Prior knowledge:
29% of the residues lie in helices and 35% in strands. The chain is globular and about 55 Å long. It is an alpha+beta fold.
Amino acid sequence: MNQERLLQVLLAPQISEKATYVADKNQQVIFRVATDATKPEIKAAVEQLFKVEVESVQVLNVKGKVKRFRQTVGRRKGWKKAFVCLKPGQEINFVEGGNA
């Protein structure tokens, strides 16, 4: 796969209470990914960037919320979330390298 494309697939890790719960229970990491990203691209990008082995990838399309400002009704942009299941013994630590 194209190296430049793989660097554009992963946008950011999704850090939330649910994400930490899923990470502890199922050995999964949650990423915000490009809306046109495919499962094989996400798997290749995670393996290349973090030097870990990926067991499986599940994706979820998150719909944008409907918001109002006075009479105008608008909608936020939707995005794609990827649940990346790592093989046993593998780990990605985002907190490492931060200043204490």
